[in-house]
Request: fold
Amino acid sequence: MKKILFQNSTWLLVAAFIAVGTLASCNNSKKQESKEQVKIEVTTPDGTTDFTVYDYAQKDQAVQEANNELDKLNRRIDELKAEANAKTNELSADAKKSYDNAIADLEKSRDNYQAKVDDLQNSTQENWEQAKKDVNQTYRDAKTGAEKGWKKLKDGVNDAVKEVEKAVK
Reply:
């Protein structure tokens, strides 16, 4: 009888260790899953940042990313200005005025975006959802405007060069 009782208690002990091991591994899996959930994709297929994916706990990350995008936008505007200034002699007065207006529009879009980034920085949990939607929309508007402005500038310069080449021939 003691031998049977000892064998049964041995099996119970083995089963208990297996159960504890299984539960421990499940708990580790859950910890790893929660770590993976923190990683979020903030860019869209077209390469723009999507600020709506951030939750309020990630506010600092969202503001940092928004400021990074603002820095990129400022560099892009500076590039446009430099390109336009470098090609001043090749452009007609109308073309130059058109580029100046396009750059002014971009700067206005950038300023609107900057204001929304400030709003995002100063947002509370109560107005977080609206603040991130607003910054997302103004970011997209400013980025689209910068891309269109760059394309317009390049197309205009290329057209002006072609006109000069045609006049020279």
